[in-house]
Design brief:
CATH topology of the largest domain: pyruvate-formate lyase- activating enzyme
Structural class: alpha/beta
Number of strands: 19
CATH superfamily of the largest domain: tm_1862 like domain
Strand content: 15-25%
Distance between the termini: 53 Å
Number of domains: 2
Strand order of the largest sheet: 2-1-3-4-5-6
């Protein structure tokens, strides 16, 4: 083992606050892997939560494993050191369970790289995370079982069953674990395909369930999700993250979080304040995590006492129709220089298509609210390639950006300075479990032309910056999120060749089939075996309403019963 790598791990541990280190003994050992670097992984609240939950058990030891950064990767390769855990520097193969938390499809390749670096066969792990909620099938060949659902609800039940049946042979053990609701073992299901490449049937073997029910926590206040480890080596250094709500009832038709986390659940503000109190000594700022912090009905009840304690508050994104003067004042007092909003589309017609439910007046009012308080920078998120989108809608992004700049100039004239308006523009990826799951992704060339037009139209406008994702990267994400088991061949080939592009060529899988094809209304999707409680017919009706530009009001649980979840 490389002495340099071990010393770096020990140094990193010494700089953390909240690390859990246990003595090895007669306990179940779990290597919890985040398939990206330490800097990225320790920014993930869900990953920290699972680490904490497992280590609260007396019979379990959970240690963290990350993808090495570039410098460390060179050292691993130079010395031939197998990858090891952070806490005890144990080799990956010494753990009883190898568990992945995979939030993004683009990390699939990293997950396999870590197994490869640990000298582990590519069939020896469990996986959770958002990607398993959506569509685990592209990774079905590499994962023994998936935990489909929220960790707080299923992790302890899984460990209990693992300990009870640990003496069984692997095949028998996996079969016994399927008795847990939310456990999906891909080897216990077979897929048959039609001659046109679509799925004919998805058949379970033995006693495996026909549908795998997503697990979700009913009493959200029974399991608080907040920063457990504080480290200077992360994007959110000096910030205490806390989840204030989970899910969203707005029903934006492109948004997976708005459907797979239904019903929306709101945490009690007093309980939040009580739980974060011990960690406040480790952070100057509190990050309030939710789909849209401004939708949280008790947001002022959280911000005011935190600011009174001398703490700053931070939020990721705000809805333009629910942002209040009090919230903006709190952000201003916390030193915010930029307000982040998501209009998503340049015209009100297209915002109705996606069920965004905000007007241009809402947009301008929100910007004015921030500028008038001295928050001079605005970041605005837009999507392109939306269903029914026209050239007029693309022009609408340009016109809206110019109108916002005009309003900003008028408001900042007396101050004698103007901030920057940043447009973050990304292609729509029609994700599973959204009404747009039937829709094709727009052609990469067409998307590139739209981005070029927007940038050209705004390049002479001072203080407007346009950033965007490469449409080719969006194509890959669409492939991985919408694919079936056959896409696993691409992932394996990409691992062997060291390149996604070469992997696609080597695998000879027809990728456009998954990305550019309009799905049939009654087509069986690779993810249809998951039961989120959402009726597929409801999603189809929402897709039809989208094409007509019809707006659907937010859900109102538990009174609302239209989608099936409640």
């Amino acid at each position: 083992m490389s002495r340099k790598l071990k010393e770096k791990a020990v140094h990193r541990l010494s700089s953390e606050k909240g690390t859990i280190i246990k003595r090895w003994g007669r306990k179940v050992t779990v290597a919890l892997i985040y398939p990206n670097t330490y800097y990225v992984g320790m920014s993930n609240l869900g990953y920290q939560q699972v680490y904490y939950l497992l280590n609260q058990r007396e019979d379990t030891i959970c240690e963290r494993v990350f993808l090495p950064d570039r410098e460390d990767m060179d050292e691993y390769q130079r010395t031939g050191t197998p990858i090891f855990s952070l806490e005890s520097q144990r080799l990956l193969r010494e753990f009883d369970i190898i568990a992945f938390s995979i939030p993004f499809e683009n990390d699939y390749l990293n997950a396999l790289k870590i197994l490869q670096m640990g000298n582990i066969p590519l069939l020896a792990s469990i996986s959770g995370g958002v990607t398993s909620f959506l569509n685990p099938e592209p990774m079905a060949d590499f994962v023994d079982l998936f935990l489909i659902g929220e960790g707080e609800e299923v992790v302890n039940e899984f460990i209990d069953s693992f300990i009870k049946n640990n003496d069984a042979e692997k095949v028998e053990l996996l079969s016994k674990l399927t008795k847990i609701e939310g456990v999906y073992v891909p080897s216990l299901y077979s897929v048959r395909y039609k001659t046109d490449g679509t799925i004919e049937s998805f058949v379970q073997k033995g006693k495996a369930s026909r549908k795998v029910k997503r697990r979700w926590i009913r009493d959200i206040d029974s399991a608080h999700t907040l920063s457990r480890i504080f480290t200077p080596e992360t994007e959110f250094s000096g910030m205490h993250l806390v989840e204030i709500s989970r899910g969203c009832g707005r029903g934006c038709r492109f948004c997976t979080a708005g459907f797979i986390y239904l019903p929306p659940r709101i945490r009690n503000p007093k309980s939040i304040l009580d739980k974060i109190e011990p960690g406040l000594k480790n952070a100057e700022k509190v990050g309030l995590v939710s789909a849209a912090a401004s939708d949280y009905p008790f947001i002022n009840s959280l911000c005011a006492p935190l600011i009174a304690k001398g703490k700053k508050v931070s939020v990721s994104s705000l809805r333009m129709d629910s942002t209040t003067d009090e919230l903006v004042d709190a952000l201003k007092e916390s030193g915010h220089k930029t307000m982040t909003f998501a209009p998503e589309a340049g015209t009100e017609r297209l915002r109705n298509v996606i069920n965004k439910g905000i007007s241009e007046d809402d947009i301008l009012k929100s910007v004015e609210m921030a500028i008038s308080r001295g928050i001079l920078n605005a970041k605005l998120y837009f999507l392109i390639g939306l269903p029914t989108e026209t050239d007029e809608d693309i022009e609408g992004i340009v016109k809206l950006a110019k109108r916002i700049k005009k309003e900003v100039l008028a408001l900042t004239k007396e101050a004698g300075r103007i901030g920057t308006i940043t447009l973050s523009i990304n292609p729509l990826i029609p994700k599973p479990w959204t009404p747009f799951q039937w829709s094709p992704m727009e052609d990469v060339k067409s998307l590139s032309n739209k981005l070029k037009y927007i940038k050209e139209s705004l390049k002479k406008e001072g203080n407007i910056e346009v950033i965007h994702e490469n449409p080719k990267d969006s194509y890959l994400q669409a492939l991985l999120s919408r694919g079936d088991r056959r896409v696993g061949g691409i992932i394996r080939a990409a691992l062997e060749t060291g390149s996604w592009n070469r992997g696609i060529k080597e695998s000879q899988v027809e990728t456009d089939f998954y990305v550019y094809r309009m799905r049939g209304r009654d087509e069986i999707f690779p993810w249809d075996f998951i039961d989120h409680g959402i009726e597929k017919g409801y999603l189809w009706k929402e897709y039809e309403r989208a094409l007509k530009g019809q707006f659907t009001p937010p859900c109102n649980p538990p009174k609302c019963h239209r989608c099936g979840v409640c």
